[in-house]
Design goal:
Layout: E1 7-15, H1 24-37, E2 41-52, E3 63-73, H2 77-84, E4 91-98
Antiparallel strand pairs: 1-3, 1-4, 2-3
Length: about 100
């Protein structure tokens, strides 16, 4: 039995823009396109701006840009999102939660 019901999700991305030279909007649109390719129907995206990290692991990198996406997708998508961005150097962390 397959579950084709669409569910609501919110994905929060912490970006790593240390070596990224282009505008952040380009990176946000690339993330949006990648989510769309995985089957997400994006309803809203927000650039939360640069936030300082609570727990700093590198004293030369104390904060970065946070981006949130609200979307609907099948139940299998959160695992696919984690796998898709696992090796992406511009994405530091991804958190996908039910909305």
């Amino acid at each position: 039995m397959t579950d084709t019901q669409q569910r609501q999700y919110r994905a929060t991305f912490i970006l790593d823009t240390r070596n990224y030279e282009q505008p952040i909007e380009n990176l946000v649109s690339a993330l949006s396109s990648a989510l769309g390719e995985l089957g997400a129907k994006i309803e809203d995206s927000r650039n939360l701006g640069r936030q300082e990290f609570i727990r700093v692991t590198d004293k030369h990198h104390t904060g970065d840009v946070y981006v949130q996406f609200d979307f609907s997708a099948p139940a299998t998508l959160p695992g696919q999102v984690q796998e898709r961005f696992r090796l992406d150097k511009t994405v530091k962390r991804v958190l996908v939660a039910s909305a």
